[in-house]
Amino acid sequence: MEKQSNEALEIRKMTIEDVSQVYKIENKSFTNSSWSLEAFYHELEKNEFAHYFVVSLGDEIIAYCGIWLVIDQAQITTISVDQSYRCNGVGQLLLEYVMNFASATCTTMSLEVRVENKAARHIYEKAGFTYGGVRRNYYGDGEDAKVMWVSLKNV
Q1: Which of 17, 45, 49, 124 is the most buried (most CB within 10 A)?
Q2: Rounded distance, CA 69 to CA 103, Å?
Q3: Would you please indicate which residues are annotated as catalytic (active-site) residues?
Q4: Per residue in 77-92, pLDDT tens?
């Protein structure tokens, strides 16, 4: 993260104005199964269960995460860090933030992750997520997803 020293990371709620930057990260990160612009707008404007967050460095959004809070369950719907900022702890920081946010009303959190995405699985395991099963052919390209869970009771 080579930026001016007076710029600090900020985590905040995603706004409609953030969607275009988030969408660019989404397309670079998930070439075979990226979300559409319309999907992000729908999540922010119409989905009462959705909560989306961004990490910014100055005016630049470098990561985002979406979660659904339904009764006492939290589900990570999407999360990504811009490729230029990976391996610097940004993903871990954002994950811990959304886990803490969800822990106010939820007891567990789950997510799906590509079986082959070892880097992401490592971050989730570091945060306490454990293997819960496999969803066969979950992604549009036919790849399976690992389902992972974590208790939010001690977050």
Answers
A1: 124
A2: 10
A3: 112, 124
A4: 999 999 888 888 899 9
Q: Please, what is the average pLDDT of the chain?
A: 89
Domains and CATH numbers, the chain: 9-110 (3.40.630.30)
Do residues 68 and 75 lie in contact, with contact meaning Cβ atoms separated by under 8 Å? yes
118-126 helix and 90-103 helix, angle to the nearest 10 degrees:
50
Task: State pLDDT tens for residues 114-139.
Answer: 888 888 899 999 999 999 999 998 88
Pairwise CA distance, residues 128 & 130, whole Å: 6
Lookup result for tokens 């930026």: 3
Instruction: Judge whether 148 and 111 are in contact, CB under 8 Å.
Output: yes
Is the pTM value of this prediction over 0.85? yes
Beta strands 108-114 and 130-135, pairing class? unpaired
Using the Cα atoms of residue 42, residue 46, residue 52 and residue 56 in order, give the sign of their dihedral.
positive
- Helix, strand, or coil (residue 53): strand
127-to-11, 106, 123, 135 alpha-carbon distances in Å: 18, 16, 6, 21
